[in-house]
Amino acid sequence: xxxxxxxxxxxxxxxxxxxxxxxxxxxxxxxxxxxxxxxxxxxxxxxxxxxxxxxxxxxxxxxxxxxxxxxxxxxxxxxxxxxxxxxxxxxxxxxxxxxxxxxxxxxxxxxxxxxxxxxxxxxxxxxxxxxxxxxxxxxxxxxxxxxxxxxxxxxxxxxxxxxxxxxxxxxxxxxxxxxxxxxxxxxxxxxxxxxxxxxxxxxxxxxxxxxxxxxxxxxxxxxxxxxxxxxxxxxxxxxxxxxxxxxxxxxxxxxxxxxxxxxxxxxxxxxxxxxxxxxxxxxxxxxxxxxxxxxxxxxxxxxxxxxxxxxxxxxxxxxxxxxxxxxxxxxxxxxxxxxxxxxxxxxxxxxxxxxxxxxxxxxxxxxxxxxxxxxxxxxxxxxxxxxxx
Amino acid sequence: xxxxxxxxxxxxxxxxxxxxxxxxxxxxxxxxxxxxxxxxxxxxxxxxxxxxxxxxxxxxxxxxxxxxxxxxxxxxxxxxxxxxxxxxxxxxxxxxxxxxxxxxxxxxxxxxxxxxxxxxxxxxxxxxxxxxxxxxxxxxxxxxxxxxxxxxxxxxxxxxxxxxxxxxxxxxxxxxxxxxxxxxxxxxxxxxxxxxxxxxxxxxxxxxxxxxxxxxxxxxxxxxxxxxxxxxxxxxxxxxxxxxxxxxxxxxxxxxxxx
Lengths: 389, 259
Prior knowledge:
The structure holds two protein chains of two kinds.
Chain A: H1 3-17, H2 19-28, E1 33-37, H3 43-48, E2 52-55, H4 63-67, H5 78-88, E3 100-105, H6 108-119, E4 124-128, H7 136-157, H8 163-185, H9 196-208, H10 211-226, E5 238-245, H11 252-259, E6 263-271, H12 286-296, H13 308-321, E7 326-332, H14 336-351, E8 356-361, H15 367-388
Chain B: E1 2-7, E2 11-18, E3 21-29, H1 34-49, E4 58-62, E5 74-75, H2 78-89, E6 95-99, E7 104-109, E8 115-120, H3 129-139, H4 144-152, H5 165-177, H6 182-203, E9 212-215, H7 222-232, E10 236-237, H8 245-257
């Protein structure tokens, strides 16, 4: 990645950092600000309603999950605990001014988080997500919840979500996904022009910048990256980062992987990343199209049952397509479904002789915790490198 | 001539090799100044080999304090160094169990000696050398090197319920107050360490294929060696110098990297 590309990335980081002030300004003009938790909540609907979206997806710091201990079990995901923890500690200036928080509920951790939002009297709308995704009843349920959310947003903003508005927002988000996807695919090159640490951050910034600011800069970035200049050596080991979520700010692991001499060239993360390969259809029934992309046809997350065999196929395909040398599985403490899936994936990787490393974090990145984590990651990367050579 | 320097949390080790032969090795306690520990332990090995630092073509450092050693030409993590050093000593090795001063590792190797998978403890030092030291010297009032032979005299198969140093300490005090024989407690401590490290490896899906090599300072304790063999139901071999395998691996890598 050349200097110009780095400058663009930094520019986007700065724009993203100013999101709270800008939302406050817009709210002062009467615009509604809607928070949302989870990748089952279609941004297209939020934009079409005229509201400004704010993704609640922070992580990587130990204090917010700890602040919630009186209300949520210690044995719940630190990621879900953190989303309310930042609010309780006054570390998130946006949450107190939100007009609505759309909280996806796909498992007990997220449901408890929605309970907490309601307990603290934050305006909450639950979006239930049934895990048995192959049943028609589940699809109907999700579709009905989207219709309910549409009405709720219309009532909040006073704007009717017409087909025209929804089509426009869908086209804009499709455009954004397309450019991110093209950048993502450049990572098939060896060495890749952009690593996982930068790509994940870029993906995160895309949630906090206005589309009209974002799209031209992403086009510039793509053009720069396409020139092929890479910050990585020719023989850098290529890694896949898989698991639940890299929250906004939780960059210790991706950075450590790349500081240890590896590069993350692809991700399979259920949350926290914009699903750049999606393209929502813009003809016919637009609400049904959203349901199809966001629920029925999506890459199944770990919570979907039965899905792990399909997920194993997806990982195998990523390994082939991106010429992956090793898989790093990143999950947070007490995420039981990811814990189970990590064992299954380790066996699959064993069969195809791909090295696999499982990492688990509680967002406690003290010197004592980072020491062994560094040894693990460096050892893995070095053993992958030796295996490659 | 090449050197490997392993700066561990408790002890620092250095190995000098030349033309595939170990010329000398050394071992010293690690001080708070890890750079100095590395420099001192290397100097000691050089003195033993009657060589000077100028004779060394390439140095690889490893271990907990690996990045603090400014004289290193290259830094490598200890898992791969353990694998390389142990493979040199035991060419057929398929599993390494290493228990050091504050950490433990289980490493599975393929036929070529490549690391297939590994597991290691996090920041808690439960079941490591420090655990053994505290319980033996402070609670049982025994010199550390007497614990192993004492454990072998045990006829009971006592197990401590915890490898947390704090909980194990109070459990041992209770056992002593019930007049439990010290040899049985000694075996109980060894068995607790064995179970902890074996369980840790199993959690990381290590298969414990044979031959199994047990290294690290705790491998000097014959009681723990026996307990691991009993718990696994497999034979375990220990290097003559179990603490220097990572430094040896680092020295071998130094030789390879300089070419």
